Amino acid sequence: MTHVAAAPAGRRDPYALGHGEGAAAGHGAGGPASKRIIVGYGFWIFLLSDIVMFSALFATYAVLVDRTAGGPSGKDLFDLGSAAAETGFLLASSFICGLASLAAAVRSKRWFYIAMAATCILGLGFLALEIDEFAKFIIEGNGPTRSAFLSAFFTLVGCHGLHVSGGILWLLTMIAQVFAKGFRADIMRRFLCFALFWHALDIIWVGLFTIVYLMGVYV
Amino acid sequence: MGVVSGRPPWPSRAKRGVGSRQAGRLALAGALAIGLSGCDWGVLDPKGPVGAADRTILIDSVAIMLAIVIPTIIAILAFAWWFRASNPRARYLPDFVYSGRVELVVWSIPLLTIILLGGVTWIGAHELDPAKPLASPNKPLPIQVVSLDWKWLFIYPEQKVATVNRLVAPVGVPLQLSLTSSSVMNVFFVPQLGSMIYTMNGMTVHLNLEADQPGVYHGLSAHFSGDGFSDMHFDVQAISAADFSAWAQQSGASDQILDASAYEDLAKQSANLPPKVYRLADENLFNDIVTQKLPPGPGPQAGRPNPTVKPH
Amino acid sequence: MLGKLSWEAIPFDQPIPLFAASAVILIALGVLIYVGVKGWLPYLWREWITSVDHKRIGVMYTFLAMIMLLRGSVDAAMMRSQQAVAFHAPGYLPPDHYDQIFSAHGTIMIFFVGMPFVIGLANFVVPLQLGVRDVAFPTLNSVGFWLTATGALLVNLSLIFGEFARTGWLPFPPLSEATYSPGVGVDYYLWSLEISGLGTLVAGINLVTTILKVRAPGMTYMRMTIFCWTVLASNLLIIAAFPVLTATLAMLLLDRYLGFHFFTNEAGGNMMMFMNLIWVWGHPEVYILVLPAFGIYSEVVSTFSGKPLFGYRSMVVATMAICLISFMVWLHHFFTMGAGGDVNAIFGIASSIIAVPTGVKIYNWLFTMYGGRIRYATPMIWSVGFMITFAIGGLTGVLLAVPPADFVLHNSLFLVAHFHNVIIGAVVFGAFAGYTYWFPKAFGFKLHEGLGRLAAIFWIAGFYVTFIPLYIVGLMGMTRRMQHYDVADWRPWVLIAGIGGVLTAIGIGFQVAQLAVSIRRREQLRDDTGDPWDGRSLEWATPSPPPAFNFAVLPNVTGEEPYWGVKQRARERMALSEEPNYEAIEMPRNSPTGFVCAFFATLMGFALIWHIWWLVIAGAVGAYATFVVFAWRDRDEYLIPAETVARIDRANRQARREALNRLRRDQ
User: Is residue B210, in this structure, part of any structural domain at all?
Assistant: First the structure.
């Protein structure tokens, strides 16, 4: 294959669209992007797809929120204090995950482990509160099989909880990776993805807290 | 004329091979049969105002689009033929890659067509909305329709009768159908009367139809609902208003009673039921089905309580 | 121990399923044993199964699609033949079996023929057309393929163990709920699609990232081929639509497995919600299939007319308009559910609007042919056949978009004819055109031309003979999915449709023959230069088949149709441009991650279907372990030395030099 030299004089560009040699209409036109950009970009797209999935669950929840089949509605069930605590745990864990990113940026293993451990504990705290809430509902007979509303609630909130659980598994794996191999370039890229994931879960929780808990109780 | 079954209109022949002369005769007979009214042309041969309006829109839309599509297909064939490489008379225009005029035309022609069709769509969707009552000097006849596994139940609340797999209707009277399902989704469809509609458990949908000519029309379910789906057809018998009153009165004296327990029998899975007439004992029956006071149909029973592989 | 699985799951007492199951087992075992005995397994493992090369993965996707096309066509043949005989008669397929066959037919054709074909061609071609070495995420690419293969495997396992869904290719509740479908059939469907849906999503992320972030220097968006644009649009749709499918099927799984009430009759479930969600995915899905096919036609028509594509810019606009609007039309799949005049009208108008950019595309192809010198190789025959067929299919589609027309045609055989018209006429014909067009690039020799033409002619004829009668009988009121019928007027048309099926089967036969003959005669059909069709885009600048690294030096793109420009200059000067400086190239290492992950996914899927809970957990642990093992590897690339790069490239340059000399001699 040859280097393509500049277009010879006199040969008209058939579409008259070329903006000149090497002019970039998008970042990709400078040649393939760096691995870090490619990985980050691809993971963002994955996150967007995950948000679409949550949107489908949100839409279902919105449609089914009033179909309580004679059972309790959100107003009857939700404990806003517990939900607020969960929000606190998750927001704090997101902040501390940011600290872990900074620690990785300055290559400090000690602070990285501390921040990640704290993130993990806060995440587990969130999960503990959520599992407790779910167990309480189920024991009282208001489990997901009680009504369409409860099916939608458990699925939407539970899906987020499953993502958090997966995130914690990933978190522990990242700690193990840094421990075994240090802050290698590919591990840093993976950690970038983890951090994006963790923060995205936080954003989804904000939506959940608002639409499910706040609107469920006050609207 | 709608018929549920009958002899094919062409001469029957034995199972030997069909020679070419006989094939020609067969084709001609087939063509004639299509031309004559002996064929049931379903949607294209409506017997009521809704079906007629549906057909008008269908044909008009096709005509509008054919005005574009036929010249396009001709152009495709023409260009494909003329510009073949072996044609020395065709001009080679390798730089012809953009033309403002062509762009204007190829964007505006589909756009104008779609605007026209959009008008048809807007007006048609509103005029022919299933729930829209039909204009008629006659008082509408309410009929309640329930789709079950795998049969149709028609309840006449004013006449206090009910039928299975046969819809008897007076000609020229708007039929005010309220529909639901006892179990899974189905679609109530009588091609020669026009629009169809879904039936769903726990909900009521509304459809207004009318038969303008007496006759027997084919009705079916147009949404797959399980193993017995192919047997979910029913007759629509359109008769004069006087005949209808007589029929209603006669049916009121039927010894078959439709009440909650008869309904629960019907709700069990079965197919190919012959048409049957009931006296309606419980006038809240339809309502009870919709509100699920009468529970939805039970579904396949074989293999319970541990259904695994084979449902029968 | 084995959940619901028992010997009863194998259809020993049903002759036709037993025959099908035995055939599948014998063929699979036969192939495995043959490959093993010939000693090909190490080669296959090293070069194909663990490959992360987009070209190999693309070929495997396409191969999967073609195998599943055979299975789906057998289903179709059984459906047509059953309907041909089942007039006032039960036919040879009892209802529960017939119901599985049409459900499997649709599921397989959409998810395991259409999708893999389109994704496979995209995978193979796009990095070559973009002038780069591979996709953005090569190992993930392999994972995506093998997960798709897992889905296909699970569907076929239902032939042997248990049953398949009996609900149609979309499992509408309440029929698909546990109450009305208590068997394992719907579970096979759901898990198979959840797993392969993950694979599709991965492919979508990969291709979008590649097109947006991994292009040769100088390749601005407006210098990409239209095929790349359509693949971009299609994969954006995948990213936006497949998560909805995942969520919806998950909700149905929760209903079935854990007694939730999303779509049940009782406790507030809402079956209309399923219809909305599934079609929010379902309509973009058909555009996911058709957009790359449109891209293929753009490439083929332009190449074989000897002209650049007409109206490149408006093609791009039309493509992205279709991409966007396809998300706004989903309700036209259930106009008859009673949403009311306003809602129906709005969605009807939106559905008609999508005909505008589609029409623009047809006219652009038309004017590409105008002023061209058209060579009628097989891909061009498919393309012209497509243009005519699709015009009809589009007409019937816009017709169905008018609610009152749909009120009498919904779910009829008219609808069935319409969607087969557009799927076969556009997607399948396009896939075959692409397959024939890029086959020499992938394997180094062309497909036999004569057999290809016969295949095209029989497929096109077969399409019309099968589906025009179905349009007619749909207008007569015949609905779809009938296992038997009693209306005499429908019979002749159903019989003619059966004959059409035979014609199509002959077409498929010719394609199989074409492949066999081409392999046998590959030396005569050899493509020496890498440019057998006088192509215009960058993939034709590489040797056939391209080396692992695609391009010895990434091309520096300065205009549209970069390869055509290079070729024209070389022809004018009667000399190639000067040899580049060859450097060593780093390529990603092969990895068994995809295959092993899919192995565990298969175990998990099967175990979930049969309620073998310990195996589910074991599979999940295994799948996670696979990723951890992958994450732990230290070397993920290998080096191709500069001398190897130079040797391969010089051989290709020599072949092209000789072709130039032959050209000079002939002038």
Answer: yes
* 8 Å CB contact between A155 and A62: no
- pLDDT tens sequence for chain B (312 residues): 333 333 333 333 433 333 444 444 444 445 544 544 456 789 999 999 999 999 999 999 999 999 999 999 999 999 999 999 999 999 999 999 999 999 999 999 889 999 999 999 999 999 999 999 999 999 999 999 999 999 999 999 999 999 999 999 999 999 999 999 999 999 999 999 999 999 999 999 999 999 999 999 999 999 999 999 999 999 999 999 999 999 999 999 989 999 999 999 999 999 999 999 999 999 999 999 999 999 999 989 764 443 333 333
- In order, the DSSP letters of C8-21 are GGS-TT-HHHHHHH
**Amino acid identity, position A204:** I
* CATH number reported for the structural domain that contains residue B154 in this entry: 2.60.40.420
How many other CB atoms are there within 10 angstroms of residue C522's CB atom?
16
pLDDT per residue over C115-166, tens digit each?
999 999 999 999 999 999 999 999 999 999 999 999 999 999 999 999 999 9
pLDDT at A160: 98
Residues B214 and B254 in one domain: yes
For residue C531, the number of C-alpha atoms closer than 13 Å in the C-beta half-sphere is: 23
Query: How do strand B161-164 and strand B166-170 relate by DSSP bridges?
Result: unpaired
CA distance C54 to chain B (A): 32
Whether B213 maps to a domain, the answer reads: yes
Model confidence over C163-179: pLDDT tens digits? 999 999 999 999 999 99
Q: CB C247 to CB A60 under 8 A? A: yes
Q: Within a domain: residue B10?
A: no
Q: In what order do the strands lie in the sheet with B276-280?
A: B205-209, B175-181, B141-148, B151-156, B161-164, B276-280, B257-258
Measured from the Cβ of residue C641, the count of other Cβ atoms closer than 10 Å reads: 12
For chain B, positions 52-81, list CB contacts with chain C under 8 A: 53-55, 57-58, 61-62, 65-66, 68-69, 72-73, 75-77, 79-80
Instruction: Out of B68, B94, B127, pick the residue that ends a domain.
Output: B127
Split into its structural domains, chain A has a count of 1
Domain for residue A155, yes or no? Answer: yes
CATH class, range C7-666 = mainly alpha
Give the CA angle between residues C410, C413, C419 to the nearest 5°: 80
pLDDT above 90: percentage of residues in chain C: 95
Tokens linked to A125: 């705290």
Same-domain status, B283 and B234: yes
Amino acid at residue number B205: V
CA-to-CA distance for B183 and B175, rounded, in angstroms? 24
Instruction: Report chain B residues whose CB lies below 8 A from the CB of C415.
Output: none
| Domain around A146 | 35-218
Q: Which residue has the tokens 């002369």?
A: B21
The amino acid that residue A129 corresponds to is L
The nearest alpha carbon in chain C to A61 belongs to C262
Q: Is the pLDDT of residue A18 over 60?
A: no
* Same-domain check for residues B174 and B282: yes
What pLDDT, on the 0 to 100 scale, is given for residue A6?
A: 41
CATH number at residue A124: 1.20.120.80
Tell whether pTM > 0.90.
yes
- When divided into structural domains, chain B yields a total of 2
Structure tokens at C77: 């043949």
Which residues between 190 and 209 in chain B have a beta carbon less than 8 angstroms from any beta carbon of chain A? none
Is the CA virtual torsion B72, B78, B83, B84 positive or negative? positive
Q: Which helix (H) or strand (E) holds B181?
A: strand B175-181
Helices C491-520 and C449-475 sit at what angle, rounded to 10 degrees? 160
**Residue B95 in contact with partner chain A when CB distance is under 8 A:** yes
- CATH code (residue B120): 1.10.287.90
Q: Range of B93's domain? A: 49-127
Q: What is the rounded CA–CA span in Å between residue A10 and residue C92?
A: 71
